[in-house]
Amino acid sequence: MTDTWLIVGLGNPGSEYSGNRHNVGQMVLDELASRIGGKFKVHKSRAQVVEGRMGIGGPRVVLAKPMTYMNVSGGPVSALAKFFDVAPDHVIAVHDEIDIPFNTVKLKIGGGEGGHNGLRDISKALATKDYLRVRVGVGRPPGRMDTADFVLRDFATPEKKDLPFLLDEAADAVELLITEGLLSAQQKHHAARS
Question: EC number(s) per UniProt (predicted)?
């Protein structure tokens, strides 16, 4: 296996979804792509991909935005992992998370998918849950709103003001995860919030 990292931003394809809470993972990938000076290109694995290095002389990274719908993200992720020879412990899924407040980022490896169908499909396709996750908090739906309706809506106007900071923080978390490892990234990142 190579020392390449595969960073996958989850979301749905198409401009009508691009501002949705469910697409926050792809928004983070856009931020990471701008940091490494890359532009997304279509890859045969049904994903848009940017290849580059994290920092000068840093580790090689493949940033990927599946072009499939969220619930079937596993196929492209598995195909990319095979193509770039990336082990599951070097796969990072960046995704929306309703179980943590908006404007919060948490990191973990493995564990349950918390009802997130995109993660469930990736776990199935990789035949393991032991890949890294950068969980970007979008908060819970208000009142009795259906969760699916909530995540398929754009961020509210007050949230949009803070969104660039959230994307920046999530991109920082990905970089820390790669350069310093999960424990160090969790200590720095989770401590900053408490």
Answer: 3.1.1.29
